[in-house]
Amino acid sequence: MKDILNNSMFFGVLVSILAYEVGVLLKKKFKFALLNPLLISIVIIILILVGFHIDYDTYNDGAQLLSYLLTPATVCLAIPLYEQMELLKKNWKAIMGGIISGVLTSAVCILVLCLIFHLEHDMFVTLLPKSITTAIGMGVSEELNGIVTITVAVIIITGVVGNVLADFVYKLFHVTHPVAKGVGLGTSAHAIGTAKALEMGEIEGAMGGLSIAVAGILTVIVAPIFSHIL
Protein backbone atom coordinates (compact mmCIF):
# COMPACT_ATOMS: atom_id res chain seq x y z
CA MET A 1 0.00 0.00 0.00
CA LYS A 2 2.80 2.39 0.89
CA ASP A 3 4.59 1.70 -2.40
CA ILE A 4 1.42 2.41 -4.37
CA LEU A 5 0.97 5.75 -2.62
CA ASN A 6 4.63 6.69 -3.02
CA ASN A 7 4.68 5.88 -6.73
CA SER A 8 1.42 7.62 -7.62
CA MET A 9 1.91 11.13 -9.03
CA PHE A 10 -1.70 11.95 -8.13
CA PHE A 11 -1.44 10.83 -4.50
CA GLY A 12 -1.03 14.35 -3.14
CA VAL A 13 -3.93 15.73 -5.18
CA LEU A 14 -6.27 12.86 -4.26
CA VAL A 15 -5.51 13.02 -0.55
CA SER A 16 -5.84 16.82 -0.47
CA ILE A 17 -9.22 16.86 -2.23
CA LEU A 18 -10.70 13.99 -0.22
CA ALA A 19 -9.49 15.46 3.08
CA TYR A 20 -10.98 18.84 2.23
CA GLU A 21 -14.31 17.26 1.23
CA VAL A 22 -14.42 15.49 4.59
CA GLY A 23 -13.90 18.87 6.25
CA VAL A 24 -16.70 20.43 4.19
CA LEU A 25 -19.11 17.62 5.11
CA LEU A 26 -18.28 17.94 8.82
CA LYS A 27 -18.75 21.72 8.70
CA LYS A 28 -22.15 21.39 6.98
CA LYS A 29 -23.35 18.69 9.36
CA PHE A 30 -22.28 20.15 12.69
CA LYS A 31 -22.07 23.88 11.77
CA PHE A 32 -19.31 24.38 14.33
CA ALA A 33 -16.79 27.19 13.71
CA LEU A 34 -13.74 25.14 14.70
CA LEU A 35 -14.60 22.51 12.10
CA ASN A 36 -12.97 24.57 9.37
CA PRO A 37 -12.53 22.49 6.18
CA LEU A 38 -8.93 23.60 5.68
CA LEU A 39 -8.03 22.89 9.31
CA ILE A 40 -9.70 19.46 9.13
CA SER A 41 -7.91 18.62 5.88
CA ILE A 42 -4.53 19.57 7.38
CA VAL A 43 -5.11 17.26 10.35
CA ILE A 44 -6.27 14.38 8.12
CA ILE A 45 -3.28 14.72 5.78
CA ILE A 46 -0.84 14.78 8.71
CA LEU A 47 -2.43 11.62 10.14
CA ILE A 48 -2.22 9.86 6.76
CA LEU A 49 1.43 10.80 6.22
CA VAL A 50 2.41 9.75 9.74
CA GLY A 51 0.24 6.62 9.72
CA PHE A 52 1.62 5.30 6.41
CA HIS A 53 5.16 6.65 7.04
CA ILE A 54 5.08 8.70 3.84
CA ASP A 55 7.64 11.44 3.31
CA TYR A 56 6.31 14.97 3.03
CA ASP A 57 8.29 15.47 -0.20
CA THR A 58 6.45 12.53 -1.77
CA TYR A 59 3.09 14.06 -0.88
CA ASN A 60 4.18 17.54 -1.93
CA ASP A 61 5.37 16.37 -5.36
CA GLY A 62 1.85 15.20 -6.14
CA ALA A 63 0.14 18.17 -4.49
CA GLN A 64 2.11 20.59 -6.70
CA LEU A 65 -0.65 20.18 -9.28
CA LEU A 66 -2.98 21.95 -6.87
CA SER A 67 -0.38 24.58 -5.97
CA TYR A 68 -0.24 25.70 -9.59
CA LEU A 69 -3.89 26.70 -9.31
CA LEU A 70 -3.30 28.98 -6.31
CA THR A 71 -2.43 32.10 -8.29
CA PRO A 72 -5.21 31.85 -10.92
CA ALA A 73 -7.72 31.07 -8.17
CA THR A 74 -6.68 34.25 -6.37
CA VAL A 75 -7.01 36.24 -9.61
CA CYS A 76 -10.56 34.91 -10.05
CA LEU A 77 -11.55 36.85 -6.94
CA ALA A 78 -11.52 39.91 -9.21
CA ILE A 79 -14.84 38.77 -10.72
CA PRO A 80 -17.07 39.61 -7.71
CA LEU A 81 -15.07 42.84 -7.31
CA TYR A 82 -15.92 43.86 -10.87
CA GLU A 83 -19.59 43.23 -10.15
CA GLN A 84 -19.41 45.61 -7.15
CA MET A 85 -17.41 48.33 -8.90
CA GLU A 86 -19.94 51.09 -8.14
CA LEU A 87 -19.84 50.29 -4.44
CA LEU A 88 -16.05 50.40 -4.56
CA LYS A 89 -16.10 53.87 -6.15
CA LYS A 90 -18.45 55.20 -3.48
CA ASN A 91 -16.44 53.85 -0.56
CA TRP A 92 -12.86 53.86 -1.88
CA LYS A 93 -11.52 56.22 0.80
CA ALA A 94 -12.84 54.10 3.66
CA ILE A 95 -11.73 50.89 1.94
CA MET A 96 -8.18 52.10 1.32
CA GLY A 97 -7.98 53.53 4.83
CA GLY A 98 -9.06 50.21 6.29
CA ILE A 99 -6.56 48.20 4.26
CA ILE A 100 -3.65 50.55 5.00
CA SER A 101 -4.42 50.59 8.73
CA GLY A 102 -4.72 46.80 8.72
CA VAL A 103 -1.33 46.29 7.05
CA LEU A 104 0.39 48.75 9.39
CA THR A 105 -1.30 47.26 12.47
CA SER A 106 -0.14 43.78 11.48
CA ALA A 107 3.46 44.91 11.02
CA VAL A 108 3.51 46.88 14.29
CA CYS A 109 1.99 44.00 16.27
CA ILE A 110 4.61 41.60 14.91
CA LEU A 111 7.38 44.05 15.82
CA VAL A 112 6.07 44.53 19.35
CA LEU A 113 5.62 40.79 19.97
CA CYS A 114 9.10 40.03 18.61
CA LEU A 115 10.55 42.61 21.00
CA ILE A 116 8.58 41.19 23.92
CA PHE A 117 9.64 37.59 23.21
CA HIS A 118 13.20 38.59 22.17
CA LEU A 119 12.96 36.97 18.74
CA GLU A 120 15.85 37.32 16.31
CA HIS A 121 15.78 39.26 13.03
CA ASP A 122 15.28 36.18 10.84
CA MET A 123 12.16 35.20 12.76
CA PHE A 124 10.86 38.78 12.63
CA VAL A 125 11.05 38.96 8.83
CA THR A 126 9.62 35.44 8.65
CA LEU A 127 6.47 36.58 10.46
CA LEU A 128 6.01 39.92 8.67
CA PRO A 129 4.05 38.48 5.69
CA LYS A 130 1.66 36.48 7.91
CA SER A 131 -1.52 38.25 6.75
CA ILE A 132 -1.03 38.15 2.98
CA THR A 133 -1.71 35.36 0.52
CA THR A 134 0.83 32.55 0.30
CA ALA A 135 1.83 33.32 -3.28
CA ILE A 136 3.08 36.78 -2.26
CA GLY A 137 4.11 35.95 1.30
CA MET A 138 6.62 33.31 0.23
CA GLY A 139 8.36 35.78 -2.06
CA VAL A 140 8.49 38.47 0.62
CA SER A 141 9.93 36.07 3.19
CA GLU A 142 12.54 34.76 0.77
CA GLU A 143 13.55 38.28 -0.28
CA LEU A 144 14.06 39.30 3.36
CA ASN A 145 16.03 36.09 4.14
CA GLY A 146 13.26 34.68 6.31
CA ILE A 147 12.38 31.02 6.84
CA VAL A 148 9.90 30.38 4.03
CA THR A 149 8.48 27.13 5.39
CA ILE A 150 7.59 28.81 8.69
CA THR A 151 6.11 31.75 6.80
CA VAL A 152 3.79 29.40 4.91
CA ALA A 153 2.70 27.72 8.14
CA VAL A 154 2.04 31.07 9.84
CA ILE A 155 0.07 32.35 6.83
CA ILE A 156 -2.15 29.26 6.90
CA ILE A 157 -2.68 29.52 10.68
CA THR A 158 -3.52 33.23 10.35
CA GLY A 159 -6.09 32.51 7.65
CA VAL A 160 -7.72 29.65 9.53
CA VAL A 161 -7.92 31.67 12.77
CA GLY A 162 -9.46 34.61 10.90
CA ASN A 163 -11.95 32.32 9.19
CA VAL A 164 -12.96 30.63 12.43
CA LEU A 165 -13.20 33.76 14.62
CA ALA A 166 -14.74 36.16 12.09
CA ASP A 167 -18.37 35.74 13.15
CA PHE A 168 -17.51 35.98 16.84
CA VAL A 169 -15.35 39.12 16.42
CA TYR A 170 -17.93 40.89 14.25
CA LYS A 171 -20.68 40.16 16.75
CA LEU A 172 -18.49 41.24 19.67
CA PHE A 173 -17.66 44.62 18.11
CA HIS A 174 -21.02 45.04 16.34
CA VAL A 175 -19.51 45.16 12.84
CA THR A 176 -22.47 44.91 10.47
CA HIS A 177 -21.51 46.77 7.29
CA PRO A 178 -20.68 44.30 4.48
CA VAL A 179 -17.82 46.44 3.15
CA ALA A 180 -16.18 46.57 6.59
CA LYS A 181 -16.55 42.81 7.00
CA GLY A 182 -14.96 42.09 3.64
CA VAL A 183 -12.08 44.50 4.10
CA GLY A 184 -11.37 43.17 7.58
CA LEU A 185 -11.26 39.54 6.49
CA GLY A 186 -9.31 40.12 3.29
CA THR A 187 -6.70 42.32 4.96
CA SER A 188 -6.14 40.20 8.04
CA ALA A 189 -6.77 36.66 6.82
CA HIS A 190 -6.05 36.77 3.05
CA ALA A 191 -7.68 34.11 0.80
CA ILE A 192 -8.92 31.88 3.61
CA GLY A 193 -10.58 34.86 5.24
CA THR A 194 -12.04 35.91 1.90
CA ALA A 195 -13.56 32.45 1.54
CA LYS A 196 -15.43 33.21 4.75
CA ALA A 197 -16.38 36.64 3.39
CA LEU A 198 -17.85 34.99 0.28
CA GLU A 199 -20.01 32.86 2.57
CA MET A 200 -21.32 36.07 4.16
CA GLY A 201 -22.30 37.68 0.85
CA GLU A 202 -21.22 38.97 -2.55
CA ILE A 203 -20.21 42.41 -1.27
CA GLU A 204 -18.12 40.95 1.54
CA GLY A 205 -16.43 38.59 -0.92
CA ALA A 206 -15.70 41.37 -3.41
CA MET A 207 -14.16 43.62 -0.78
CA GLY A 208 -12.16 40.68 0.56
CA GLY A 209 -10.77 39.96 -2.90
CA LEU A 210 -9.74 43.59 -3.33
CA SER A 211 -8.13 43.65 0.11
CA ILE A 212 -5.99 40.59 -0.67
CA ALA A 213 -4.40 42.29 -3.67
CA VAL A 214 -3.93 45.73 -2.10
CA ALA A 215 -2.70 44.36 1.24
CA GLY A 216 -0.22 42.15 -0.61
CA ILE A 217 1.18 45.10 -2.56
CA LEU A 218 1.39 47.29 0.53
CA THR A 219 3.11 44.54 2.51
CA VAL A 220 5.71 44.17 -0.23
CA ILE A 221 6.48 47.87 0.33
CA VAL A 222 6.12 47.99 4.12
CA ALA A 223 7.90 44.74 5.05
CA PRO A 224 11.41 45.76 3.82
CA ILE A 225 11.06 49.06 5.70
CA PHE A 226 10.10 47.33 8.96
CA SER A 227 12.82 44.71 8.44
CA HIS A 228 15.46 47.34 9.21
CA ILE A 229 13.89 48.23 12.58
CA LEU A 230 14.76 44.96 14.31
Automatic annotation (TrEMBL):
The keyword Ion transport is annotated on this UniProt entry: no
Keyword Amino-acid biosynthesis attributed: no
Membrane-topology descriptor: Multi-pass membrane protein
Entry-linked Pfam families: LrgB
Compartment(s): Membrane
Keyword field: Membrane, Transmembrane, Transmembrane helix
GO cellular component, one term: membrane
InterPro entries: CidB/LrgB
Membrane-crossing segments per the record: 6-26, 33-53, 65-82, 94-119, 147-166, 206-226
Chief location bin: membrane
Name the record gives this protein: TIGR00659 family protein
